[in-house]
Amino acid sequence: MSKVLTGGRAKIYIDNVLAGVFDSCSWSGGMSSEPIYVLGRAGPAEIAPTAFEPVNISLSGFRIVDSGIHVLPKFPKYQDFLNIQGITITVVDRQTGKTIATMVDCVPSNHNQGVNSRATSKFSINMIGLKLIDESGDQSEVDPVNLP
């Protein structure tokens, strides 16, 4: 059994429903930081971490008739705008059954789709999520302040 994860081993779930229409899923995250400058010094005295950035997710897949972007990828319709709920995207290794990544409270930001006379019809959706949980465990803050 190979330890290297390949695309053929990855299964994508959206809110615990297996989504078999995707051919690509990528995610990225980062931290914000700010250089601290003081008088009497040409360069920064230190780099201060200021925040974790939200996780950015990109999904692409095949356009299936009667199963467009509003069905399983759950891109909201116009009339649902005021009631958008965050979704959970989970990537699972089908060989081991282990969860590779979970992106929590994801909200779609944009999509595109099209047709081509000599190719399959494809779509892509970009989302932004609150946090990423991977094999290293939960990524929750310790004693955070929350909205009322």
Please describe the topology of this protein:
Blueprint: E1 10-14, E2 17-18, E3 22-28, E4 31-36, E5 46-52, E6 55-62, E7 87-93, E8 99-116, E9 119-129, E10 131-134
Antiparallel strand pairs: 1-2, 1-7, 3-6, 4-5, 6-9, 7-8, 8-9, 8-10
Tell me what you see in this structure.
The chain has strands spanning 10-14, 17-18, 22-28, 31-36, 46-52, 55-62, 87-93, 99-116, 119-129, 131-134. The protein has 148 residues and is mainly beta. Strands 1, 2, 3, 6, 7, 8, 9 and 10 form an eight-stranded antiparallel beta sheet that branches. Strands 4-5 form a two-stranded antiparallel sheet. A hairpin with a 2-residue loop joins strand 8 and strand 9 (119-129). It is globular.
What Rg, in angstroms, do the CA atoms define?
A: 19 Å
Q: Determine the oligomeric state from the structure.
A: single chain
The share of residues in helices is: under 10%
Shape designation:
globular
**Secondary structural class:** mainly beta
Order of helices and strands: EEEEEEEEEE
Average pLDDT number = 92
Low-confidence stretches: none
Tally of contiguous helical segments: 0
The tally of beta strands, per DSSP, is 10
Range of strand content: over 45%
N-end to C-end Cα span: 49 Å
**Sheet with most strands:** 8 strands, antiparallel
Which key features would you list for this structure?
globular; mainly beta; 148 residues; 8-stranded antiparallel sheet; two-stranded antiparallel ribbon
Structure at a glance:
The chain is mainly beta.
